[in-house]
Each structure stands twice: as structure tokens, then as C-alpha cells.
């Protein structure tokens, strides 16, 4: 068990190191930040001073080490536009994003998983076909199209709900719906196929043959086994709580992390972009770690198996 | 994922009786295929089909509604704020979006299969490095990575296509590695190797054709994802840059006119949805037919 934990932790750390390296390499490859941020006709002294101030004249490996050290201290640089620490800018947007993604996550879980289970248990029934059709639709309609359609119907035509902004809970309804519907569809599809796979396993037949009632067989044998693949995708959803609303926040002018990211990318405010990148990676890696640990709880076989078993 | 049994490949009819394998295509799949053929035709013949150049202005007919909503046949799908013909823009956008999606899918398949084969051939350190990259890629939401790269490098069409080509390579890598490893232990690969074939020949001429059906199925499953990604980024104004236009661009532009001229946005939106839906349907059907091991 300790070895299992150690391996997972090492893997999580390795991913984080890769992300930080990725950010550094991309940052350095992208050209001279001094020229990016200052206009081309800035006086050479100003550019030199800027380079000095940001340590751009040092050897690359020193910059790399300094970069790591700074991130380790929690110093993610200042927004190159308004000079405030990037982490501060990002942190004040987090509650707004969570106000959308947490209810949406609840909606995905609350609708997607029961719908998927029901569809699998009643395979080829009307409900199954309806769920699958909705699931394919939910998967193929991009969130910005869904969001805009909801705006068109509920804000423009019916006038029930506001189309954008963040003044009251009513403003959150449409974005949460947009996020929730798509996610629920994906989850339903996934849960269904996980359940179908498990229901066809020999141990289900064995359980039924020895006289276990159907409901109990489903509850005790099918659900826990189907939970393993489902947990993976739920983990991914939990991991994208911060980053999963980029497009939807833009559609509804919701001032969250995703909106900040889009604006920062458009302005090439690299410190803010990098801060969000690292934050998202950290959330994602933590969620994956939690999923890996959950695997260990759900399926004792995986505790000693080689890592590829779950990959 | 890594230990996919290969038994299903050479003997396709696992349990279904032979008669059922010649069943007619489901109607939905026929419709989907028809739509895709139409899209391909439109993409290839874009210049012949568009009634106007996609940037041509018609200032006397600005925000003209489509036929059926009070519009004129001159502009069957209406015009936008600048009087540009929506149909012509739609046709050009379809070509652009399909070009990007095909380019990116091809790049990610080639990249993934190459890395997967390398991992399977060399094992050891190379394999670990590839798997670490796969883990990294699989654990990050691709949209965020793409946005970061766009922020750092700025945007140009070739770069954008290559960037989207990085989406999903890890799935091909996993599949290719897993299948190549198990092919290595099968007779045919060992036999060719024994006859003195180079690794290029073994992988290119013998392993690749044997795993091609699995790869093609995963390509069809990944294709809609690329379309959604491209249109999402273009919608945010960070993908295809004006004056070029793609389906996502059109939706992003039409959003400003949601109340006054919803047709600007509805036309490209429905093309996106129909196309991704069709590819998904065909992909699901192909998967069920060709390769039951994928889910």
C-alpha cells in the first residue's frame, strides 16, 4: 500500500514538474518578453532596464532554476499589464468560477449517473434510446452554441432570465445549465457503457445463479465495479472545476477565471496565463491523485498492480 | 488499455451470425454519411458554389434576413452587419474548419502512432518517457494548454493547425503502443523480423495495416472533438483570425447580433452540430462494426 501511494505521489509530482517546464520552455521559446511587452519603438535603455529587472540577461539554466524557486515560494510574477501579483488577480476570480462549476458538477452527477445506470439496466428500452440520443446530442453541441441558444430562448424570446453579467443568482442559471447539460450527457454515456460492461461479466451470472436477487446483485456487484471507470471521468470533471468554464464564462460575460484567461491570452499577459496554467494543472493533478487513491479503495487488486492497469 | 486482446482483429465475427453482418446501413448512418459527403463537396467546390466572394460587401442589403424570414433570394441565408452574404461566408467557413480538422487529425494520428511505435520498439527508457508525456497530456485540459501556447506564441494559421494536432495524440500513442507490443509477440511480426526486415518495414508494412482499423475508428471519434475545439477557440476570438473565417468565427461574430439578426449565428451553429453529430454517428457505427474492443 505504501509503495502504491509513493508511486502515485511521484507520478503527480512528475506531472507538475513537466507542466512547470512546459510553461518555462514555451515562455522562453516565444521570443523576447521585453519586446513583447514594450512597443517596438521603445528607447533601447528602457528595454535594457526591463530586461535587467526581469532577469532576462542571465544564462538560461539560472533562469530555469530561479523560475522553479519562485514558483516554490508561491511567487508567480506580476501581471505585466497592471503590475499586480498575478496570483492575486486569479485568486479573486476563483469564487465566481466555482459559483458556476460547483452547481454544474452537482447537476452532472445528479442527472448523468442515474440516467446512465437506468439506461444500462433497461438496455434497448425507450428510455435507453432517449438517454443515448440526448447524450450524443449533448456531446456534439458545443457549449457556446448551447449557451447562445439558451440565451436566445430564455433571455431574448421569453425574457425570463438575464443573458449575461453577475448581479444575482438568476444570472447564474443559464451558465450552470449550459455547463451541466453537456457534462451530464458525457457522464450518462460513460456510466452506461461502464455498467453494460460489468453486467455482462461472469460474476454477475454467478451471483444471479446462486440466487442473489437482481436488485441486490446490481447494488452489491455491478455498481461498485462500474464505479471504477466512472470515477476516472468524474475526477477529470472535479479537476476542471477551475478551467472547465472558459467558453461558457465568455458567452455569459461571467467574471471568472476562464474569462480572465481569455482576456490575458488576447493581451498576451504572460504572467497571468502562466499562473492560471499552473493552478489548473495543480487542481487537475490533485484530482487525478485523489482518483488514483480512490481506485485503491474501490479495487484492492490495483494496489499492487503495475501502473498501466489504470492508465 | 495496454493489453488489448488482438484476437478480435483477424476474426471479426466474434459471435454474431454471418447473415447479420450484411445488414443494411441504419438510416441514421446513411443520413450522417450523406451530410458528410455534402460537407466535403462544399469544401472542395467552395469557390464554385459561393454566390459572392466571402468578403464582398453589399451595403444596400445589410442585415437582410434569410429567405423564409422576409429575405430575398439574392442572399438566401441573409447578410450580416456589413452586408456580407451569410451563405458565401458559411461555405468558406466550412472549407476552413474542415481543412483545420483534417490537418489536425492527421498530425495527431501520425505523431501518436510514431511515438507509440517508438515506445513499443525500444521499450525501457523511451517507453517510460513516452508514457510520462502521455500522462501529462491526458491530465491537462487541452483547451488550457492551447490557450497558453496561443498566448505565448501569438496566432498564425499553420501554428494553429499544428497546435490542434497536439490534441489527442496520447490516445493514438496508447493504442499504437499497446497493439504493437502485442503484435510483437504474435507470429507474423516475429516471422518478418526473422526474415531480416528492418524495423521500418516491420512497423510500416506489417504492424500498421493490422492495427489500421482500430486507428481509423479512433480518428473518427477524435474528429468531432477537433472541430469543437477549433470552433471554440475561434469563437473566443483566439483561433482563426479575420479576415479569414471559420464556423466558430461566424458564431462569435453573430453573437453580437443575437437579438437583431440571429441567422448570422444559427447557420454556422447548425452546420457545426450537424457535422459533429454525423461524424460521431458514423464513428460509433464503425466502431461497433470494426472494432468492439474500443469503447
Automatic annotation (TrEMBL), chain B:
It is a multi-pass membrane protein. It is found in: Cell membrane. Keywords: Cell membrane, Membrane, Transmembrane, Transmembrane helix, Transport. Signal peptide: none annotated. The chain crosses the membrane at residues 27-50, 98-122, 142-166, 207-229, 263-286. It holds the Pfam family BPD_transp_1. The keyword RNA-binding does not apply. The keyword Transmembrane helix applies. Residues 94-283 form the ABC transmembrane type-1 domain. InterPro entries: BP-dependent_transpt_permease, MetI-like, MetI-like_sf, OppC_N. Gene3D superfamilies: MetI-like. PROSITE patterns: ABC_TM1. CDD domains: TM_PBP2 (cd06261). PANTHER family: OLIGOPEPTIDE TRANSPORT SYSTEM PERMEASE PROTEIN APPC (PTHR43386), PEPTIDE ABC TRANSPORTER PERMEASE PROTEIN (PTHR43386:SF25). Belongs to the binding-protein-dependent transport system permease family. This is ABC transporter permease.
